[in-house]
Design brief:
Blueprint lengths: L2 H7 L6 E5 L3 H7 L4 H21 L4 E8 L7 H24 L3 E5 L7 H13 L7 E8 L1 H17 L10 H7 L10 E4 L18 E4 L9 H12 L9 H7 L1
Parallel strand pairs: 1-2, 1-5, 2-4, 3-4, 5-6
Helix pairs in contact: 2-3, 3-4, 4-5, 6-7
Bound molecules: 3-methylbut-3-enyl trihydrogen diphosphate (2 copies) and magnesium ion (MG).
Length: 250
């Protein structure tokens, strides 16, 4: 059976995959190369992940490419990562449009250097009517920062009488998050062996299944992706219920 047709029929297939792409620096260091070489190679894996998910019929993919905390890295490393983000947006625009992939950016886009901001804005604009997979690029993103921004917006609207505090709900909070138009991630994959979220989608990951891979991001392949999806399909998501209740509901 082809992966694409299976994804539509099998409700256990993840609709939204989110990836914390980690391990570029270590990949380079173990080869005696500068950390920036790891980022260069890692950008190939970004294409593997995006087109691999699209080929498998995944509805949404979020890639954690640069965290708000990553601004504290050395300037050369930041400059390299920002250039690679710009190059991805510039070079992949045509293929993303051809595949009908709709791109959004989550995170503080105003913090990005001009070329990266312009290139990502152009990509978002060019793909805004696309109806296929949703691709969210998390750039200068922080989960806590996103929640602070949502709470601030709600408080400002409450002060103006536009929001009634007693009527604030999980759903209304969600609509103020930068991920507002995306479903919650079903599966979070982190490469590089670390077992942490590093401030990624803290509100949205409440019930996400987590998959940690020892593979370093530049070595990420379709096999790593399939391994993570296969592990996901074997899990039972209980949302607080008992295993028997979930099995009975089918
Ligand atoms: C992921 O690789 C890239 C970003 C976080 C932007 P790292 O650069 O974090 O690689 P390691 O963790 O140092 O190996
Ligand atoms: C997480 O990786 C952020 C991204 C993948 C963009 P880091 O390498 O920055 O995370 P920590 O510092 O090890 O937690
Ligand atoms: Mg890292």
């Amino acid at each position: 059976m082809k992966a694409q047709s299976r994804s539509i029929r099998d409700k256990k297939f993840p609709a939204h995959i989110a990836i914390i792409l980690d391990g570029n620096g270590r990949w380079a260091t173990t080869k005696g190369l500068p950390r920036t070489a790891g980022h260069e190679h890692g950008s190939k894996s970004v294409r593997t992940a995006v087109y691999g998910c699209h080929d498998r019929g995944i509805a949404a993919l979020t890639l954690y490419a640069f965290s708000a905390a990553n601004w504290s890295r050395p300037k050369l490393e930041i400059d390299t990562l920002m250039r690679l983000c710009a190059e991805f947006a510039e070079n992949e625009l045509e293929e993303l449009v051809r595949r009908d992939i709709q791109v959004t950016v989550i995170g503080d886009i105003d913090e990005l250097p001009r070329r990266t901001r312009k290139a990502t804005e152009a990509l978002v604009e060019a793909t805004k009517s696309c109806k296929g997979m949703k691709l969210a690029l998390a750039l200068s993103y922080g989960g806590r920062q996103d929640m602070v921004s949502a709470i601030r917006q709600i408080a400002i609207r409450a002060r103006a009488g536009l929001v009634i505090p007693e009527e604030v709900t999980e759903e209304s909070i969600r609509s103020y998050l930068s991920t507002g138009n995306l479903p919650d991630p079903d599966l979070v994959i982190r490469t590089g062996g670390e077992r942490r979220l590093s401030d990624f989608l803290l509100f949205e990951c409440a019930y996400a299944e987590l998959f940690f891979s020892e593979t370093l991001w530049p070595d990420f392949s379709e096999e790593t992706l399939d391994e993570a999806i296969a592990a996901f399909t074997r899990r039972q998501r209980r949302y607080g219920k008992t295993g028997a209740q979930v099995a009975e509901a089918g």
